[in-house]
Amino acid sequence: MEFMRRVYDLSGKYKQIIVVSLLNVTSSQVASIRRIIYKGKGTLVVGKNTLIRKAIQLRSDKDVPKQFEEFRKLGKQVPELATLVPQIKGKVGLIFTDESVFELKPKLESNKIQAAAKLGAIAPIDVIIPPGSTGMDPSQISFFHALAISTKIDKGMIAITKDYQVCFANKVIGSSQVALLQKMGLKPFLYGMTVLSCYDDGQMLDKAILSINTESIMERFQSGVKNVAAISLQTGIPTQVSIPHIVSNAFKNLAAIGLQINYKFSQIASASSAPAAAPAAKKEDKPAAKPVEVAKPKVEEEDADMGLDLFG
């Protein structure tokens, strides 16, 4: 009764109730997670699913049985909690917290430990042994032959000649698979707490939604903004996201025209630090000059400066 009272009380105090899988999670991992949650002002509840479901069902029902009438003193009913009841199945725990599930999820799922395969357990991933030396002497070759593993003797050691899949994801691990992985000294699995779903202030968020992080949301949003801007520019319909591009393109056109006709305005004054040069006189317009005067160094320097100013 006291456990149910606690769950009933917590389910009305917090806006978020996160359902986490505790499959293959060790007690030390649970203790570590409790410390993480406590810092975020929350609590982890682990207990019998029947009692947890009953407490939450009482919190969501309009009518409370007489034997639980005193529970009403802990707060008003929350009908939306009924959507949480079907999620409580298997080896799970509930995290009651006001911290965002999207911020808390990486902290919870990062606490993993490497573990060996266990007989009868469900393999979370495919496990494949690549070709190469096993480090075992030829006296143990019969073990590999019994499992139909292609081998050869290389430098006095048994070597596997091609990929061999030991475990299949979501399949039960057998005794021969456990024995092989033990002989190879492999611990292929990482076990830790996994977020399954979340009750968020009346809404249920499934695992697919919870897998979306802030970075991916921003990337999708920015991609959408770019698409809207591109469509607006192509159709000539101004929108809030296309106006900056329209202004920028117009300024570029004005700057290009100004530079072409040698007309400067303040916004492009820094485009060229050198003063505008007068256009060079055509050869046929120059007054006749004596050869000696044409060869003066000063005239050559002026011609050189004019060329640098105009084309530099």
Describe the model.
It is built from 11 helices and 12 strands. Helix 1 packs across helix 3 (49-60). It is flat and about 90 Å long. Strands 2-3-1-11-12 form a 5-stranded antiparallel β-sheet, with helices on both faces. Strands 6-8-7 form a 3-stranded antiparallel β-sheet. The protein has 4 domains: 2-111 and 193-211, Ribosomal protein L10, N-terminal RNA-binding domain (Alpha-Beta Plaits); 127-189, Ribosomal protein L10, N-terminal fragment, domain II (Molybdopterin biosynthesis moea protein, domain 2, Alpha-Beta Complex), CATH 3.90.105.20; 217-271, no CATH class; 274-312, no CATH class. Strand 11 (194-200) and strand 12 form a beta hairpin. Helices cover 40% and strands 16% of the residues.
A few lines on this structure:
The chain has helices spanning 2-13, 27-39, 49-60, 101-109, 141-146, 175-184, 207-210, 214-235, 243-260, 291-294, 297-311, and strands at residues 16-21, 42-45, 92-97, 112-115, 127-129, 132-133, 151-154, 157-160, 164-167, 189-192, 194-200, 203-205. With 312 residues, the protein is α+β, with helices and mostly antiparallel strands. It has 4 domains: 2-111 and 193-211, Ribosomal protein L10, N-terminal RNA-binding domain (Alpha-Beta Plaits); 127-189, Ribosomal protein L10, N-terminal fragment, domain II (Molybdopterin biosynthesis moea protein, domain 2); 217-271, no CATH class; 274-312, no CATH class.
